[in-house]
Protein: Histone acetyltransferase HPA2 and related acetyltransferases
Organism: Vibrio maritimus
Amino acid sequence: MEFRVAEYADFQSVAQLHAESWQTAYKGIMRQSYLDETVLEDKQLIWQTRLLNPPFSQHVLVAEEDGKLLGFICLFGNHNVDYGTIIDNLHVTPEAQRRGIAKQLIIQAVKWAEKFYPDNGVFLEVLADNANAIKFYEALGGNRELKQRMESPCGKYLDEYLYTWKRPAELSEGCNVLA
């Protein structure tokens, strides 16, 4: 397996995986019409924009095997004054799940956060109804800081939790403990 920084040429495969991940994880949570008709187009626009002219605070890594995308992670350094660097996306293909790829992506990405934002925390937002993700992040030592209501891209208001780690190294340690 190989990890590398995402390039513009990756936008289509990253968008496809992002959309498919949402279609699976958010079935029954988000409006089905959005998941069926709009999510792929939304993700294509997001990833084309993000990978065409990335901001200096963005870091996107992909995991590949034999040239096939297995997963990706996207961070924005120092995104929030209180919580630090956000893990904005972490997605792994269904075929590659349960192989430790998500943990490996986190470990690789957190090296970047440790280098550029070592004293900042790390956080992510997860939908309150996404039980699998909640279980995963809690196993990595994430602290549930707050519950908030957000308007999802489908126009539906949903509850989400904010999970935090005090430093990037704390998240890496959680990945290694769970290994």
